[in-house]
Amino acid sequence: MPSLEEVKLKVGQVITEDWFTNLYEVLKETREQSAVTYEGHIRRDLLPEEDLKVILGDPTLRIKEVHVGTGYATYEFYVADKPVIKDGDPVTIIDEPHLLAKKIKYDAPDYIDVFSPDITMLYSGRARTKLLLAEDAYLYLKWIPKDETEILMDERRLDGRKFHEGDFTVEKDDKLNYRIRPTTTVSIFVYNIKTSGSLS
Predict the structure, then answer these.
(1) For 88-122, how does the pLDDT look when each residue is reduced to its tens digit (9 = 90+)?
(2) How far apart (Å, rounded) are the C-alpha atoms in residues 166 and 119?
């Protein structure tokens, strides 16, 4: 097999049939050994020469579709300009939390709604609660599904002087509220997180 250097023309060199034959063999070998064919078919693994340096595509020159079996991302991954957050199955694509209601250092009466009126969810997705109790107490989550009148309650005992955070799946127009027993001081923030999509 001739080398590329052997078919490099020199000044004054006469082009012969052998030269054309050697050039053909070099081009054929290059085509057969290339990781990507002229038609765009990939024959083997594509590996960058340096780690985390090569960029595939551009914000203004994008690849239309990518079809893969398994994908791995070391750092961030975005879909529709939203971060993909892995906190269970399926992977959920979510917006930033939208603050719906808050009370800071509120002296919550015993087993009375903390908020008036009930908090209405703006989006389907999740309700996120962040709260701090001055003393150990029971937290009651009141949920009224949209188009329903039945009140559903969830009871949880929470330690005082500790931050607590939890998510609850909701639909748009669901209503939520909270009750505390016994009476104590509470700081509570309620967010609505819109679900933009999901990756199974």
Answers:
(1) 556 656 567 899 999 999 999 999 999 999 999 99
(2) 16
